[in-house]
């Protein structure tokens, strides 16, 4: 019995459970910053972001722009979005008129969860509410501006988290602190926070028990206005997810990359200018194209290929980060086929090479030139080649010992190794297209190296 209990406890500790039990956090950054991000988040490495809302009906933005900003961009009367809106819907058609059309009639949460599971992602983050203020759950604080009262007349957020967790994946919610055109926000920010934002955010947490709270839209005000430390102290001390929940760093202007949980980048940058420091757990988020919300104005040439998406994942993980890769479903509730294809092909690669991604840590160097990225785990080093390495793979950063061994992940048999002037050379066998274990990137597992 004791051995069984010890095993259960060890498994719980490894998954991050109980990691925070017994600890109390004050509503100060000094205290809150001492809470570690739960282990499951670092181990998972790959998540799926979902931008879906009323903006998914017009689903349009200028190329290179975010389509989910449609309502905001409509206000610029000399801009491309307003010109498109005039030509397509007419001057009298208001943004709010899109809400009854947002029916999500083809939304199948089980099918979405199946795609996510096949992608190899370990967690999912749904936009519960973007800057437009429309909620994907029947929020009492957003009467008639939520998916229960209008449009789908359905609890989209609740149905999806049930399906996703049913497939063994983690799931959390994106939540925008501010709302562009909420009358209370525009007239009295303090009242908005006290009466609308905080009750709504706590309702989301207590109702669905998410694994992750991913906030945004914080840049208008400091964290004191948003009462961020107060909320986080509640989340970590009292909420039903206090021991397992992960959070990001978007809790007030000037907070990013300074406080909160994991730090965030967006298309490789912070706030449009600053490269991310790699000394803290971080996550890169980006769309498959230039937009997060579905943009009908983008075509196939605007989407990164599967190989390019995988390179972003591999490069990010080699430097200690996670990748949160976004999809933008359509207004009727479908994941565009090109997005499904990218995700499933990434999953095919991860089925073969996942041991070089999941649960790994950055090695003492992250790369050798443009070809190789490194990760490490359990005494092994993984040299991930972003293209086929050829017959002789030289790894200048690797210091081989007399016990060095190499294998091509996905194929049986050792690869011949030799030490030439302190540089490890690996003989890669000539393989046909049908013989290679995967496509896009190739992993050499190394043991007996320093």
What would you note in describing this structure?
The structure is a single chain. With 450 residues, this protein is an alpha/beta fold. The protein folds into two domains: 22-356, Glycosidases (TIM Barrel, Alpha-Beta Barrel); 367-449, Golgi alpha-mannosidase II (Immunoglobulin-like, Sandwich). Helices cover 29% and strands 20% of the residues. It has 13 helices and 17 strands. The strands form three sheets. The protein has an eight-stranded parallel beta sheet with strand order 5-4-3-2-1-8-7-6. A six-stranded antiparallel beta sheet has the order 9-10-11-17-13-14, with helices on one face. Strands 12-16-15 form a three-stranded antiparallel beta sheet, with no helix packed on it. A hairpin with a 5-residue loop joins strand 13 and strand 14 (414-415). It is globular and about 70 Å long.
CATH class (first level) name of the largest domain:
Alpha Beta
What's the domain count?
A: 2
Strand order across the biggest sheet? Answer: 5-4-3-2-1-8-7-6
How does the overall form come out from the CA principal axes? globular
What's the CATH superfamily of the largest domain, by name? Glycosidases
Proportion of residues in β-strands = 15-25%
**Distance, first to last CA:** 41 Å
CATH topology of the largest domain: TIM Barrel
CATH architecture of the largest domain: Alpha-Beta Barrel
Taking pLDDT < 50 over at least 5 consecutive residues as the criterion, the unreliable ranges are 1-19
Radius of gyration: 23 Å
Sketch the major β-sheet: 8 strands, parallel
């Amino acid at each position: 019995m004791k051995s069984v209990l010890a095993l259960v406890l060890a498994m719980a500790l490894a998954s991050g459970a109980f990691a925070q039990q017994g600890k109390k956090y004050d509503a100060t950054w000094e205290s809150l910053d001492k809470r570690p991000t739960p282990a499951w988040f670092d181990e998972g490495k790959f998540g799926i972001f979902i931008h879906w809302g009323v903006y998914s009906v017009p689903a349009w933005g200028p190329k290179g722009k975010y389509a989910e900003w449609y309502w905001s961009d409509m206000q610029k009367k000399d801009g491309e979005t307003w010109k498109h809106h005039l030509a397509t819907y007419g001057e009298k058609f208001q943004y709010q008129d899109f809400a009854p059309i947002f029916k999500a009639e083809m939304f199948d949460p089980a099918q979405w969860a199946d795609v996510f599971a096949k992608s190899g992602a370990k967690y999912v983050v749904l936009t519960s509410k973007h800057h437009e203020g429309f909620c994907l759950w029947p929020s009492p604080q957003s009467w008639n501006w939520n998916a229960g009262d209008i449009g789908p007349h359905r609890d989209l957020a609740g149905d999806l988290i049930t399906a996703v967790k049913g497939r063994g994946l983690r799931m959390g919610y994106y939540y925008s602190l501010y709302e562009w055109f909420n009358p209370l926000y525009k007239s009295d920010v303090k009242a908005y926070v006290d009466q609308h934002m905080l009750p709504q955010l706590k309702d989301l947490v207590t109702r669905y028990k998410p694994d992750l709270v991913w906030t945004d839209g914080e840049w208008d005000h400091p964290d004191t206005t948003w009462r961020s430390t107060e909320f986080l102290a509640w989340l970590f001390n009292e909420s039903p997810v206090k021991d397992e929940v992960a959070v990001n760093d978007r809790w007030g202007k000037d907070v990013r990359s300074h406080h909160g949980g994991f730090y965030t980048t967006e298309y490789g940058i912070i706030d449009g200018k600053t490269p991310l420091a790699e000394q803290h757990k971080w996550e890169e988020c980006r769309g498959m194209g230039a937009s997060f919300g579905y943009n009908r104005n983008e075509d196939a040439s605007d989407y990164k290929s599967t190989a390019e998406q995988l390179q972003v994942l591999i490069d990010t993980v080699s430097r200690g980060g996670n990748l949160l890769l976004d999809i933008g479903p359509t207004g009727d509730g479908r994941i565009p086929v090109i997005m499904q294809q990218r995700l499933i092909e990434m999953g095919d690669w991860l089925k073969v090479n996942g041991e070089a991604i999941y649960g790994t840590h950055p090695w003492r160097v992250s790369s050798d030139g443009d070809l190789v990225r490194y990760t490490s785990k359990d005494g092994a080093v993984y040299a991930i080649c972003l293209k086929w390495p050829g017959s002789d793979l030289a790894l200048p950063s690797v210091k081989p010992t007399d016990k060095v061994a190499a294998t091509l992940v996905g194929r049986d048999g050792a690869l011949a190794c030799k030490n030439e002037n302190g540089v490890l050379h690996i003989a890669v066998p000539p393989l046909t297209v049908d013989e290679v274990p995967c496509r896009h990137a190739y992993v050499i597992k190394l043991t007996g190296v320093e």
